Structure formats: C-alpha cells, structure tokens
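ok trying this again, last paste got cut off
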Amino acid sequence: MSDLKRRRALGESYSALAADLNQRGLRGPNGARWYTASVRTLLQC
C-alpha cells in the first residue's frame, strides 16, 4: 500500500491506480476488481 500512497502523492489519479492494479491481476476487497472509489477508500484509511 505504501507504493500506492507514494504514487498518489506524486499526483497519479485514483482511476489510474485502480487500472494498474486490475491490469496486474490484483484483486480488491472481496476478490472484486478495483474501482476508483475502492482505491480512494483504501488510501484514506
């Protein structure tokens, strides 16, 4: 998660982060794909 926080601090959008996670085949909460809102929620915790 620290990589995501770093990339976000550098100005990368939540949607770009979600797209990258999905492209790499990483699944989000509950095994679902990543969405902008799920990345935002994760990083705001």
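PB: full thing came through this time. Residues 2-44 form one domain.
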